[in-house]
Amino acid sequence: MSTIPRFFPAIPAGGSGTRLWPLSRTGRPKFLLPLGPDPARSLLQATVDRLLPLCGLDRLLVVTGEAHSAAVRGQLPHLPPANVIAEPSARNSSAPIALAAAIAHERDPDALTGSFAADHVVTDPAAFQAVIEAAAQVAAEGLLVTVGLRPLRPDTGYGYIEAGGPLTGGPGLAVRSFTEKPDAATARDYVATGSYLWNAGMFLWRADALLAEVGRQLPGLYDGVRQIAAAYAAGDGPQVHAEIWPTLPTVSIDVGIVEGAAQRGRVACVPADFGWTDVGTFDSLAAVLPGDAAGNVRVGGAEVLAVDSARCVVSAAGRPVVLLGVHDLVVVDAGDVVLVCPRERAQDVGALVGSVRDAGRGGLT
Amino acid sequence: MSTIPRFFPAIPAGGSGTRLWPLSRTGRPKFLLPLGPDPARSLLQATVDRLLPLCGLDRLLVVTGEAHSAAVRGQLPHLPPANVIAEPSARNSSAPIALAAAIAHERDPDALTGSFAADHVVTDPAAFQAVIEAAAQVAAEGLLVTVGLRPLRPDTGYGYIEAGGPLTGGPGLAVRSFTEKPDAATARDYVATGSYLWNAGMFLWRADALLAEVGRQLPGLYDGVRQIAAAYAAGDGPQVHAEIWPTLPTVSIDVGIVEGAAQRGRVACVPADFGWTDVGTFDSLAAVLPGDAAGNVRVGGAEVLAVDSARCVVSAAGRPVVLLGVHDLVVVDAGDVVLVCPRERAQDVGALVGSVRDAGRGGLT
């Protein structure tokens, strides 16, 4: 495998992942945690690991919150410091992704860039890399390319992409429409047709193509990120970034840019299947991490002794967890607090954080 | 309440309680653990607390294994050192209980003594003390007196006492028979009659009356414990104890002495109801410890945040345990290991200890 020429992938590293409490905390967001198949690598590190062969260290960009930039640099000690861009505040996804495109464009006017979330799991990096190489071919034509995961189940927690026919001369498919989280019946219909894909929020595009769409749909954002990127190139990036950032629109890249571009026929998708999950909940880990013969999943190398127990998801903190006669439970020993809940309640873990604060234990959140 | 004259209660402190693993360990048996309503007192300390008003410090005897005698003395710093007798090896219950009677008899030929397990829970100490005072009246007549707990359910894990009519001139009832753990149908019949009581293994008797029965039924044990007791009075107790102890019979007090005495009409019982359990399993704690509105029981002052959760039994180790959407579970954080099992599997926890050893984690047992 060789690198993709002029490829500057951007990794937005934001979000705290409260549904993964008590592993995730305000000061220790999901992307810094080792939740993937390799217990020695955080989700962020694993994201970098699978992108590096495609781009090299010098062209990999990470955009994260100021509160986490030191931890990000600590986990990625070989990344050039200038490639970690600290957001003065969180402004949804269009601002950091457009900024990364502007910075890539400053460095190389023919740059290819895109967005790869820091907190997803991919269990088949080789398949991922092949898909990105295919997507890069499509993006080189000037289209915005989204990666569409072949749906494994009629999940109502994801957005869906309706794919059309193949585009001439490449592996891309046309995109007919995007749908936000559908109801269960709609999701079943989508999966049955075979032409709907999960929208993983994973994009590739030429920096100039993305910036052209930003300029058309969100001209204020365009001006802002161009100014900030120029300032970073000139050496006073953080100061200009702090001044301009609060004035920029707060909107997701999907709603702010991609959907509008799709209506103009400017979006393609590349279908993919590389063992992906957004790790939204502890339950979702069971779909991608290897389990034992009874389906018990050990997160982050947890030491688990399971007797008459099946389909549990367990995270430990250096202490063994012993299960006897239980099934479909989430058990998380985070070192300073222990959580037990059924997998089917994993969606409700985020709401616990408020209860923990109400109980006077905000220090654990 | 005043003390009972010449009352030398004996507390056999033995057994490890493997069904309470991982709280109980080889080196930290059940009786040293704070499993009762007061999280600041171990089961042993609570046993002493409820007996002390009846006897005073000078007459309270504890018989324990050599491996645990230092821990016992540490938990009972005010007890005279001579009142903690260390067994050179475990020899079931008749030897330590007969020895305690012999020691009490050395100190006072008219001594009243008996046996009160170190690892049971009593939630109503005042009712306990009233029952013991009543039992002491019956024992003063020379009968062996057993305390019979009014059954709360047709439990198949306990022995049963068939009580007869009232004895003249006191609160005692005749004892017709003893039955070991019955099957479920028999247990239901027993409870339905109203004349069966749980055998809690809690006894009172005059030391001379018990020793007379020992002499009749187990003469070798009689000679041995008289020699050992004389040696303790003379100052060379441990040496003589170590020499004689291995030669004594290993049999329970029920089988070795009480059942034979009952056949001769020498056993009475006193019915009682003071919130008792032998804490055989984590499940049994739920029957005696106070729960929250949803029936969740916090063992040893555990900090528990229970959301949509009911009837769980939780022990913690200075860390909070958070429950979401679970019911009828046992969750034990022992500091170095976490156990999760359904309450209905609590009987099977003892067998886990072998599995933990097989997994190379014998250090946790």
Based on the model shown, name its key terms:
23% strand, homodimer, 365 residues, globular, five-stranded mixed β-barrel, Spore Coat Polysaccharide Biosynthesis Protein SpsA, Chain A, four-stranded mixed β-sheet, alpha/beta
Q: What is the structure about, briefly put?
A:
2 copies of one chain form a homodimer. With 365 residues, the first copy, chain A, is of the alpha/beta class. Chain A is built from 11 helices and 17 strands.
Globally, the shape of chain A reads globular
Range of strand content of chain A: 15-25%
What's the main sheet of chain A like? 5 strands, mixed, barrel
CATH homolog superfamily of the largest domain in chain A: Spore Coat Polysaccharide Biosynthesis Protein SpsA, Chain A
Give the oligomeric state of the chains in this entry, treating copies of one chain as homo and distinct chains as hetero. homodimer
Derived from helix and strand composition plus strand pairing, the structural class of chain A reads alpha/beta
Distance between the termini of chain A: 42 Å
Can you list the strand order of the major beta sheet of chain A? 6-9-7-8-10
CATH class descriptor name of the largest domain in chain A: Alpha Beta
Set out the fold topology.
2 copies of one chain form a homodimer.
Chain A: E1 10-13, H1 43-55, E2 61-65, H2 66-75, E3 84-87, H3 94-107, E4 112-115, E5 121-122, H4 125-139, E6 144-149, E7 159-166, E8 173-179, H5 184-193, E9 196-206, H6 207-217, H7 219-234, H8 237-244, H9 253-263, E10 267-272, E11 276-277, H10 282-285, E12 297-299, E13 304-307, E14 313-315, E15 321-324, E16 329-333, E17 338-342, H11 349-358
Helix pairs in contact in A: 1-4, 3-6, 3-7, 6-7, 6-9, 7-8
